[in-house]
Amino acid sequence: MSQCHDWPRMKMNECWNLDMIIDAFKKGDVHETIELHSLSNSTYLLWPKPKMEDFDFLKDALNDLEVVEVLSIGAGSGLFEWALEKISGIPVLAVELDRIYWKNTPRPNFKAHIFADEELLRCRLESGNAALLFSYFNDYKHFLRYLSLFTGSVLILIGPECHGRYSMPTPFDSNIPKEWKLWCSKEISSTKDFITVYTK
Question: How many domains does the chain have?
Fold first, then answer.
């Protein structure tokens, strides 16, 4: 039986593809998992469609900046976080805000969450060697709040630079606090989604 038989509003071909992604994940095959997801038309698991070259770009940036841990705020399914940890070898914490939703949703979860109300998150935000990651985040007020609590010097943004898709902040957002300077960036394939890395 399909693993996504109870997922809402899923088309049959999307369901089949998601089953393949989950099977690859269960085998621990990060290359196959990422390749299958990049070929999928669905955004059910993850909005951007990164390939291995995109994860390698982030891995190199994190190593160059001597990052020892990544805190991903609004991690969703955790697929990106799981893959980044597997590929980079750097621990990635998948942080979510809505404990009730993620405890009850039928959506697949690729990485265990920590929740925003946990003391563990506050301790990690005060770690000077961590990076703070926001992927398709959509709340500028909360973004600034997390940024104000964060004592590290590396910020990663992933999101669109095109009409029809939306994130707040955007990867090259002019409203990002001025102490943060763009360090490097990469377009994800030719999708108009970008990875940007800022430092201060």
Answer: 1
